[in-house]
Amino acid sequence: MSPLILYMHAGSGNHGCEAIADALVRLCGEEKERLKPILLSNNVSQDRQYMLGQLEEEGRLTLVEEQHIAAHLMAHVTYYGWRKITGDAESFLRYRYRTILSQLKKRPEGAEAPVAISIGGDNYCYPEMVGDLALSNRVFRRAGCRTVLLGCSVEPETVPSLRQDLMNYERIIARESITWQGLVEGGIPEERLSLVPDPAFTLETVPVSLSDAGLFPAAYQQAPVVGINLSPMARDLEQVPGITMRAYERLIRDILGQTDMNIALIPHVVWPSNDDRGPLTALYETFRETGRVALVADAPARVLKGTIAACRFFIGARTHATIAAYSSLVPTLVLGYSVKSRGIAQDLFPGQEEGLVLPVQGLSREEEISRAFFGLMEREEPLRTHLAQVMPEVIARACGVFGGVL
To answer: Are 8 and 136 in contact (CB under 8 A)?
Structure first.
């Protein structure tokens, strides 16, 4: 059986990364019996704190740590010198993946080509990552792998500059239609493309009872809950300094003042360099004395999905937090900052997505998020009914993400 390598996994402290990998491991097992993927990870110890560690213990995947050249002074100096002299830009990536590359070299001649799948989702939206993405693609191809870009979002205007690299993938699986259309218009042949929802739509859910979780004092435990997520990344992209936090504070004040609902602040990324708990803790401290605002603890992606599923509404900046809400039929307002948010909402609510995504770069007044949320409340039942109608097909399509690949 051909090896299946999942790479560009940044670590489970980003629970969106965890959700993608978790879902794909399960789908691998369903697609081909006994197929056990190799997951190349930037942080295996982090993965083992959450669900991927359990899946490893169950024998459903193999976790392999990438080599970190910056952590090894002599290797860093040696490879830097080599690259400077020879122009061999791939050398750093060969070092990064050398554990798995050495295994691939031992495969018998004539064996079926391995499949190496880049699972980073929106990595191509970040200019600083494009170089390593292209080099990784080339390294795995040189090692005899078929390469696939799975569940991706790509800003359409960048496709022409990325075309040479993108054409090196055997197949590209876009997760929303704006990306798919941009790839086609940018010159990628349609026969190389698929349009399949993000695999995280299929993520299993650990049920959570918010009334039993001890988040709120007894007097408030039975009230409906609004889930709120905010990321430092969204805040950093604002064009009006401080507007995002002011808008979230206004939102919370209006919910507390105009409804009987509680608020759960839900982190979805807890990396030290990019930790949702920073802005969420600041919001919690502002409103903690009300007894109606709680800060949810870090947990595996499946548990966080259960927490989000127990909310009546959800407002989120992290894409996979909003995917957890959508797939749990929770009416959702997205604070978006890239093509992925617009594309996913457009595909789920064709012609109805207006008012469901607010670009953070366009925030200029502190009442904007609150106004959009109360507009969401007015559409609660139609939105919930629509999600109930479309989600079975969305999940079914996402379950077929490996079609034509394995």
So the answer is: yes
What 3-state DSSP class applies to 401? coil
Q: Cα–Cα distance between 238 and 319 in angstroms, integer? A: 17
Q: Which amino acid is at 51?
A: M
Whether the pTM exceeds 0.90: the reply is yes
Indicate if 165 and 225 belong to the same structural domain.
no
- Find the CATH number of the domain harbouring 346: 3.40.50.2000
Distances (CA, A) of 186 to 160, 164, 182: 5, 11, 6
Query: What is the per-residue pLDDT across 351-361, written as a single tens digit (0 to 9) for each?
Result: 998 999 999 98
Number of independent structural domains in the chain: 2
Q: Let me know how long the chain is.
A: 406
How far does Cα 208 stand from its chain's mean position?
21
Report which of 251, 257, 248 is spatially closest to residue 280, judged by C-alpha positions: 248
Can you tell me which residue has the tokens 């990998």? 21
**What value, to the nearest 5°, has the Cα angle with vertex 167 and ends 165 and 169?**
90
Axis crossing angle, helix 177-185 with helix 339-348, rounded to the nearest 10: 110
Q: Which of 269, 390, 250 is nearest to 12 (CA)?
A: 269
Tokens of 268: 């979805």
Of the candidates 222, 154, 234, 208, the one whose C-alpha atom is nearest the C-alpha of residue 330 is 208
Q: Distance between CA 89 and CA 358 in Å, rounded?
A: 39
The CA distance from 194 to 190, in Å, is 8
* Cα–chain center distance at 26: 17
Q: Read off the pLDDT of residues 126-160 as tens digits, 9 standing for 90 and up.
A: 899 999 999 999 999 999 999 999 999 999 999 99
Which H or E element spans position 386?
A: helix 380-399
Q: Provide the domain limits for residue 341.
A: 210-394
Strands of 90-134 (E only): list them.
115-118
Q: Look up residue 310 and give its two tokens.
A: 């127990």
